[in-house]
Design brief:
With 182 residues, the protein is an alpha/beta fold. It has a single domain, classed as 2-Layer Sandwich (Double Stranded RNA Binding Domain). 35% of the residues lie in helices and 30% in strands. The N and C termini lie far apart (74 Å).
């Protein structure tokens, strides 16, 4: 028994389509690299950073506590009491809430909450390693006038989310600034 296979013919535009797809991928990669996009990577503690102490804007700063834990997990050596150390100083923490959109009747429909943190890094020898900078995170949420009772709870959830995200944002900024110094 003989089987007859019919030859598969390729669409005449198939090679052009493959070439176009490859070109599109190359252009996308070039475009992403040109705009400064880089995938996130883990925070690597520079060897010359030494022991680290995080000092909050007040003695009960949860941000300072969370940042110290994250730095320790990343391999930073916590400073002993009274020993010379690199100091990551959180100078200020600010929360702001404001309207984002307003409807035709001048009622607020969306709010934005921003969390700003000013920080700097002082080396153990007293020199400024990273000058004072501000990191700001923001989230928006909708306000439904028919569901006004849920708004304070939603606002609290957004604030908690920002408070949990800020240590990672600070570590990304530290990583960029400390890498630039090398």
């Amino acid at each position: 028994m003989t089987s007859h296979r019919t030859p598969v013919t390729q669409h005449p535009l198939a090679p052009i389509a493959r070439t176009f797809a490859k070109l599109a991928v190359v252009l996308l990669l070039v475009g992403l690299s040109a705009c400064g996009f880089a995938p996130r990577r883990e925070f690597v503690v520079p060897a010359d950073l030494g022991a680290v102490r995080v000092v909050g804007s007040d003695s009960f700063s949860r941000l300072a506590e969370r940042l110290a834990v994250n730095l320790s997990r990343a391999g930073a050596m916590p400073a002993a009491d009274g020993a010379p150390a690199t100091i990551i100083r959180i100078a200020a923490e600010r929360w702001h809430q404001g309207p984002l959109t307003v409807d035709a009747a001048a009622r607020v429909q969306e709010f934005i909450i921003t969390y700003s943190v000013d920080f700097d890094v002082i080396a153990a020898d007293g020199s400024v390693r990273v000058p004072r900078q501000t990191v700001e995170l923001g989230r928006d949420f909708t306000f439904d006038t028919a569901q006004a009772l849920g708004t304070p709870g939603e606002e609290e959830v957004v604030r908690d989310e920002l408070a949990r995200a800020m240590p990672a944002a600070l570590m990304r900024r530290l990583s960029l600034r400390l890498d630039a110094d090398r």
